[in-house]
Amino acid sequence: MKALIGIIEATIRDKIVSCLKELGLSTHEALIYLMLLTHPSATANILCRETGIRDSKIYYALDGLSKKGMILVQQGNPSVYYAIPPKEAIANLKQELKQKLIDSLSEKIRKADIMVNQLSLMYDSAEKPEELELAYIIRGQKNIVKRMKELIRASRHEVTVFVPFPSVLREISESLIEAKEKRKVKLNIGVTQEVVETERLSELGEVRLVCCALGMLVSDMKTLLTLTSWTNEVAVMTQDQNLMRVCRDYYDNPACCRKINQS
Q1: Within this chain, do residues 77 and 178 fall inside the same structural domain, yes or no?
Q2: pTM to 2 decimals?
């Protein structure tokens, strides 16, 4: 029975040591802290004897525990070591882990900024066509929404947009309102009946009802983004003036886009 109890205790201890290591302690530090929890106080010699850690290693581990806020040291000849209560000690470890994560993230962001500069030099030095190609495909709803917001933010005079689904309007409405109120951009907005029935449109100004589910955005008659399939997450961006004029004429045609009463 004693042997079985010993095995169980060793298993529990090993699991605790493993958890403490995941929180940032070394094996020696974890063993020493566990030992100090069961002893009111102990000298380095006692800790060497009880843990099996060599004298040449014990002081390095004790110094590490002290810096991590896990133990207190009463200086003397010999010095005596005390365990800080687990609640406070683990809180100290958590704080140290958070700081390491912050430092690591800051370093990665710094490296990312350096990389942006290096990649930008490569990109800027490459030869590019003066205008956007006829059809530039964008895939993924997040990427499509991001590009729509960029085009709205870049607009200075007018944005014409046909919104087929409520979810699309929710993504870009804030950008549209900002363009209208802060930069005085003229908004030409057409929406489907589904959008009219589910969304609040008053802040967008005049909104028209389109006769079919179109997904398009024209920014200052310079760039057109056509939402070919929201379900399949595909859009096409172009600078073709003919297509943009067709889109703009569609909005102005009362047979295609009729004014709606928002009161």
Answers
A1: no
A2: 0.51
